[in-house]
Backbone:
DNA sequence: TATGAATGAGAGTTCATTCAT
DNA sequence: CATGAATGAACTCTCATTCAT
């Protein structure tokens, strides 16, 4: 039970931090604020995380893992690319604005430590690769393009999320995905 | 000539700041750094800009104005939507990574001062509106969607720009634009 | 005990600041200096005070409260106006130079925030009012005059304090008080 | 005429500075502000004054000289101490609030350069001495007390000036002067 | 003589991190 | 494990002073 409680506290800190980072940006959130909102002592944060940057890293990892998990699930359940797109859109739009903000922050803040960045996204990339290999290999879409566009699109949604409802977002995302993944040769 | 020199210095500060902001993010760049790289005294920055935020505002304004100008030019020179897309892609990709980063930073940092944000982008939006009204009115794309996607795409390119060459970027951007602007009804 | 220690540190900062403000003026004292002399970190000051101005406010409050307390005590113990004057002089001359300087600084620095100023001195003024009503009501001294002169005299002592010993100061203060408080009609 | 114009400019700077210092305090007035209000270039100030402190010194000198002049005149025209007091009050109350503020600022700001302070007030003190020697020598008022109280009173008026009209001020000042200068032995 | 663009030292303030309890 | 008081490095911003014109 102590173990459970401990995990509880770490999760609480991480979730609070993710929410605040997404709302205000990395530098605009102080550890005081995280501690206050997570209802733990400021020192406690350092029991679970080495540094503030470390919290963002774990946030990003969690988001990427979530994406990876979604992709894996959707991938396993989809017989055709159309089905894949449909399922992906539904699965991915959930909490998309928080998730995409975290991805973006992480991308920006860790730009000086490429190694850490690459390590954190490698799992995510690997899953994308499997999707790519099943559905797109041999098309004129390169993996790098596939990865960039997909990731970029999620980020773009950060902007759109404020002006569009969830339904519109799904419709739009679907259109763009179809356009990228199913386009005619040339 | 003094006037010229003066403008020179302001431009130098602004360009340096834009580059650094794009590289590291707004909060990660100090005025000391801007001053050092622009080879001016720290105090000089305050001769031309009221505050650090003001530098970002003028950066964003300059970027938005650039986009607006591109759109206007491309718009005037294009007879069809195909031509428009072709011209837009070529005109817009230039320096896209710096520009899109600035747009994103400004979007994030000014999120607490909506009024200033809206004022800065209003010109840009108005030009988009004219494009929309010429080519897309009556289609099932709403102006809000058009604006959101287009702006989002430019920002998405921020991610892609690091992994893709200019040619690939153009190809991709073109595909997405076609997909958005030319799609079948429904 | 932690509580005691905490109060200790705040007191130490406040006392150091009051001494330095009195010696050099508000603007001529830096937070670095206060921190150094109070033997605390610069950041520690901000644990206890919101801003530099806030330190002056609390300094002033403490001085005014001291005056008020002195007045109240002296007032309660004095049967006649002569006794009142005697007791007041003795009680008020203690640390008069620091106290009067703080009053003056606060008067000057808060002149742009009248509300805060009035709030801080209201207690002090109220006590003066009770003295006035007991001893001077019906005389040709108005309350405003009484208040102005008394406060002014304390400030004037700021000048004198450097050239006169405590005994001389008491003698002088007594003379002026008698002159104000006991003068013949007209 | 060039000479006249030059003097004009220096006077304009000095008068503007005195007014602003009195209104806002020494440190709260910037040279930019003085230059703007005096309608001269910022650099021009340094043609006439070595430093900002120098402006305050000359302001103080001018105020002290004014007092000295008043004292001398009043002194020469007065046959008795009563007449002296009457004349002094009338002559001294003019512009008293600006004058006393300047004196106080100078007193505070130059406290670290005693020599300059003493030099600036020596003339003023000498005139006071002549008054003292004519009217008070042999009384139980020491010169130091006389000087301190008189100067202090002028400063105290800084406080009072905001709450009292000129007539009340004169009445009050007269009372205090009588009290100091005419008191019974002991 | 007159100017104001340019400057950098130093101000007040914030906050990630440490550590004694 | 859990805490929050304490810290100082680093931030943005101000302004007296200089100097080329």
Residues:
């Amino acid at each position: 039970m102590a173990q459970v409680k401990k995990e509880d506290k770490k999760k609480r800190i991480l979730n609070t931090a993710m929410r605040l980072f997404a709302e205000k940006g990395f530098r605009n959130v102080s550890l005081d604020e995280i501690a206050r909102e997570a209802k733990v002592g400021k020192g406690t944060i350092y029991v679970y995380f080495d540094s503030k940057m470390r919290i963002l890293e774990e946030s990003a990892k969690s988001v990427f893992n979530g994406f990876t998990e979604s992709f894996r699930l959707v991938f396993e359940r989809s017989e055709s690319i159309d089905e894949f797109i449909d399922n992906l859109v539904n699965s991915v739009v959930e909490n998309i604005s928080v998730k995409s903000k975290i991805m973006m922050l992480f991308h920006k803040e860790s730009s000086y430590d490429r190694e850490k960045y690459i390590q954190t996204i490698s799992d995510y990339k690997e899953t994308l690769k499997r999707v790519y290999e099943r559905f797109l290999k041999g098309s004129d879409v390169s993996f790098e393009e596939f990865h960039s566009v997909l990731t970029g699109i999620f980020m773009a949604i950060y902007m759109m999320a404020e002006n569009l409802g969830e339904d519109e977002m799904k419709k739009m995302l679907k259109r763009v995905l179809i356009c990228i993944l199913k386009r005619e040769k040339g």
